[in-house]
Input
Amino acid sequence: MKNNFIYSLLCFLWIGNLCAQQTPAAKQTQAYTIEGATAHLGNGQIIENSLLIFNEGKITFVGNATAKIARQGTVINAKGKHVYPGFIAANASLGLVEIDAVRATDDEDEVGTMLPHIRSLIAYNAESKVVESMRPNGVFMGQITPRGGTISGTSSVMQFDAWNWEDAAVKKDDAIHINWPGSLTRGRWWLGEDPALKLDPKYIGNIQKIVTYFSDAKRYLSSDETTENIPFSATRGLFNGSQKLFIHVNGEKEITDAVLKMKALGINNLVLVHAKGAENVADLLLKNHIPVIIERAHRIPEGEDDDFDLSYRNAKILIDKGITVGLGMEGQMERMNTRNLPFYAGTYAAYGVGKEEALRMITSNNAKILGIESFVGSLEVGKDATLFISEGDALEMKGNILTDAFIQGRKISLETHQTTLWKRYSNKYKTD
Output
């Protein structure tokens, strides 16, 4: 009896959850014309009084509204508003965890340490209420990344309006993620040890474990072995250049070691994540064409001698060095905070980067780093019509008010569990 009751309750909750989800938009069947908006192309350019036309999911025209070209399909008068490419979140774990306290909804970290074969793709929950809450702020796409271990697993790029992970996938298995060890450690003060930073005697050994693993994988891939080693097989893309290695690393020494060790193994398609101190080894990164995914600005400096505003100026420092910079999400409350991606970019803009360069960090730069720049990341003819119209500046909280949104030309809903509750209780307390 008790088991039947629990089963019935779970079924009821499951059906209720499904009913609460927004139905993904249908394929675009008619053309759209957006006229009069200030178009932020995502590549650093702006078109005042713009004209943008898209059909069958692709942008067919971008230019000035004075152009003598026939308007097509539904015409949206966006005078006084702004149009942007959809924002892209790099290094996010959206759709892998729904409720932190409920283990059954947490698929971001698998058991083990060397897990290149673990794919976030098949664990992604397209019906996540957390994922749908990204859309009202213009975040339409993300690199869904596993966490934990030394080699966390393989990420995939997903769009945020889909029935299932198959529909959501934009680029499958785009990269493998590795957490590089640190060269410093602190003593365990609770055991009476000196808590000051000191060299970690295990650092060299930890690096060697990584090098040995990839060396063994490379040797396996070039052998005639008939018994498949699934983890080693998953690294094939790293050695043939079809897949990127995202190295989560901090510190000048660690960055230098990571780049040189991986290059020596023949893994050349590298991206650094976090990368504190990267500006001090910029020549190494530029020589090897290595971009950097930085974290959100709203955090305190990590080093005791760091400037108080270093976290806010980090993007400008790297960009001034000539490094390609994208913006990612990782850390405490990262899934809920991902919706604030444009506002973190706006903070970097206020600290020297400038609005259009900050916009590139979450559009064309992230698209380039993730290897999807050929079809998303900027408003250009031939690219996907993944874009939105905002009443104001989308990098500012007061201006980021979306009126129309499209993913691959499909007009998507901006309703979420949060907006439903907001409207429900706003109406409850209205007075005549």
